[in-house]
Design goal:
Number of strands: 8
Strand content: 15-25%
Oligomer: single chain
Number of helices: 10
Bound molecules: iron/sulfur cluster
Radius of gyration: 20 Å
Number of domains: 2
Distance between the termini: 42 Å
Length: about 290
């Protein structure tokens, strides 16, 4: 299998579970569970706001962004949705309603607590076109290992920082940004983007966490970090190992006790497409 062009999400997926990476290659998609749908809806709402804010410098009204999140959930439910046994028991409409409630509450939280602290950059791309610093696609060639890294920078700020939005059901650990491989890959992409556009390289990389706990408590957490050449060199070595694993067709399944190897977080878990899920694990838990 060729691996001369790897996206950040593919690398993260391979490192999380090699078998999940293989199944996506074989089936062309990840069956979306509720967590993924909710996260996408919050991102769509934030993107709608920040893209226009690059020019207007003003945030959209809260209600408009809550509606954007709800509409996005509705749209995603028109496609294939994988529900757990417990969710099926409660019914599609109930689960959809809960997903809308979760997504709109976090879209509101983002608008009220995070968006006012973000001013996306406007920049001129290599083709001479003005672009918003939102969802910026970058390709970085890495000649040392003969592959290209492809990724999308969530938001590049006027002040120079890179921001990445996360949604979660629990508070992140304090060193989450420090350890994040995704932010290191963002730093690599940003370095290339800066060279292509003449914009100053980012000095700060930020994870903006929007949290809603199962009991409904809301919170935001901003985690800032920096990256240097040593971090990036280590990441290139890691990407080289991923490339070698894919090319040698080594697709190890993750450990079954990892939290994401579950019906809620892996779309292949309850579809029967993953041969590593034990039958016992699929039985309803009492
Ligand atoms: S169910 Fe578990 S082992 Fe199977 S693809 Fe998903 S994460 Fe990997």
């Amino acid at each position: 299998m060729k691996a001369d062009r790897l996206s950040i999400s593919a690398i993260n997926q391979y490192l999380r579970c090699g078998n999940q990476y293989l199944l996506v290659k074989l089936h062309g998609y990840t069956p979306p569970g509720i967590s993924l749908i909710q996260g996408k809806a919050v991102h769509a709402s934030a993107e709608k706001n920040l893209r226009q804010k690059a020019r207007s410098r003003v945030d959209l009204p809260v209600e408009e962004l809550e509606q954007a999140a709800a509409d996005n959930v509705e749209e995603q439910f028109h496609g294939q949705v994988v529900l757990t046994d417990e969710e099926q028991g409660r019914g599609l409409n109930v689960v959809k309603g809960e997903a809308k409630d979760f997504s709109t509450s976090l879209a509101k939280l983002h608008r009220e607590k995070v968006a006012p602290t973000v001013q996306p950059l406007l920049f001129v791309d290599g083709g001479g076109h003005e672009q918003e610093g939102v969802e910026v696609k970058v390709v970085a060639n890495i000649p040392r290992i003969g592959t290209s890294l492809v990724g999308v920078l969530d938001v590049k700020e006027e002040s120079g920082g890179i921001r990445d939005l996360k949604t979660s059901g629990k508070k992140p650990s304090d060193d989450e940004a420090e350890k994040s491989g995704q932010l290191t890959m963002y730093a690599m992409l940003d370095a290339v983007h800066a060279k292509q556009t003449g914009i100053k390289r980012a000095e700060t990389f930020t994870l903006d966490y929007l949290v809603r706990t199962p009991s409904g408590t809301l919170g935001t957490y901003r985690l800032d970090t920096q990256r240097d050449r040593v971090d990036m060199t280590a990441m290139v070595d890691r990407i080289a190992a991923v490339k070698e694993g894919i090319e040698k067709e080594i697709f190890l399944p993750t450990n079954p006790d990892n939290w994401f190897c579950s019906a809620r977080f892996c779309g292949f878990y309850s579809t029967g497409l993953c041969r590593y899920v034990a039958k016992g694990a699929r039985r309803p838990q009492s």
